[in-house]
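Subject: Protein record for review, amino acid sequence with backbone structure tokens
How to read it: Take the token row as a discrete description of the fold.
Enclosed: The protein record, placed directly beneath this head.
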Amino acid sequence: MTIFLSSKAIGYDRNVIVDDDNVTFTQATHEGPAWHLDAHAFQSLHRVASATGQRIRFKPDDNRVSWWESFNTVVRYDHVLGRAAYLRYIKDLVTDCKALTSCENYYTSQYQVQNKLLDRLEPAFLDKDAADKIENRDTLSLVADDTGMCAVTSYDNFSSSTGRMSVKAGPKIMTMSKETRHVFRSRWGDEGTLLSVDFNALEPRVIMTLMGKADLPADIYQVLGDEVGASHIDRSTLKLMVLAILYGMSRRNFIVKFVDVPDVDVTYDRLLAALGVKKILGKIKDQMQDNIFTNYYGRHLKCDNESLMVNHYTQSTAVDVACDGFLRFVQDCENFVTPVFLLHDEIVIDVKKDDVNKVKEYTAQGLYIPSLDTRFHTTTKVFNARKDH
């Protein structure tokens, strides 16, 4: 893919376009797909470098450049360094950028789906009067401008050992209680509403799909119960059992926790087999080097605790699956859907009430996952409903 280095990013009066071995200085811009130095761009070299832990000298490592930047918003690096030194900087930068993108891997492919989805998020509208009543308002970053709009929530999607995202800036939506969500309102006032589209049982659904079980119904726990002969176990308990296994609970602790369930030891063994935990753990061990293995899409994961390896694999793969489905959803529905928050396997959208049925019609059969060529069931509901309403 082409690498586009804007004049502003490289401190020059022209852009640089890199196509294979051709390096061109030009006033023209590049309209097609390309890697960029802009940290906020979809195909961002900054993001790949951060995610892979590689140090790229995106600007000249020279104290004179830093000094000039403290006084000027735009600095011509070639004027500061001199032509010969500047051309060496460009040569080294191009070499680093090409090395970063030369091989097809997770961070130059599936990871960019996450970034493309995050770049589509828009600010949420905050009810200032309601927010003033929240005791930990500052901790949750419930701050809005004069129009009532919060800052766009910014996510860290590479630091977590399991691949799960966390909030870097903006409203701390992931640590906010459900009772606090009423502080957010639709940007369209009474004519709009906030909806959440939430994958049903995403992690067990992911792991069963990867085991070759296609066309799973909405109630995946019913399917598992029937498969392992656990019709005598109520659905809520069976759900807890499945999650306990996926989160690495040992057989002994499982039996102790669910001691009141008849034939609990048999149920554990059957669920373990139905979920394919041992098969996935075997694949992880086969590829693992220095406690590093990859999820289904190739994302590097590090874990030295065997009981947590399948959990890391499943959680990380589920993040990629969710982003795959959500990105397609917001792209297909961009004329009437405004995405504002991402909460792991749930996306929050702002939509006019007249368009709610369009959302429900789109999500009725679940969201299509392009990378797996299948649909995953979802639930659509009001995001900020209060219990007292």
About this structure: The mean pLDDT is 91. The radius of gyration is 24 Å. Residues 2-103 form one domain. The first strand starts at residue 2 and ends at 5.
